Amino acid sequence: MTTLYLVRHGETIDNANQIMQGQTQGELNENGIRQAQEFSRDWQDKPLDVVLASDLKRSIDTARIIAEPHQLEVLTTPLLRERDWGSFTGRYIPDLKGETWPDDIETLENLLSRAGEFIAYVRETFPGKKVLAVGHGIINKAIQSYYYQKPMSEIQRMQNAEVRILEL
Q1: Whole-prediction pTM value?
Q2: Given 70, 82, 106, 136, which residue is catalytic?
């Protein structure tokens, strides 16, 4: 059985400022770096075989900090990218309430399909391994929605540098 430790990246400058990041690279702020360092210390003695990250900088940076004591290379995959928020990207989140969603936002069907592809990729590529994967709030929610076969609305939001464990 493969164990997936699904982690959300550390806090970013845009998270703290309530800016919709979507598929922008993002930059960890001081708190986000500290969150990743604390996670790394807490997990330094836990066995890990593989560290994966979304191909966006905020996830890669978090994953590198976590992987350091394990001396593991961080592998990246676009399957773990955050939802594409289209023209909502870069906007102040409270201003989006009540707005009509534009047509350029990644569909829920596509997001859940990508989540399923990610789970299949981990199962097939790393059978029997302990895999830590650093993703983002919404894609991580979609992965759990797919895994538990529950609507995304029933999956609790992940905090920055939080982990959820899935047995694949």
Answers
A1: 0.97
A2: 82
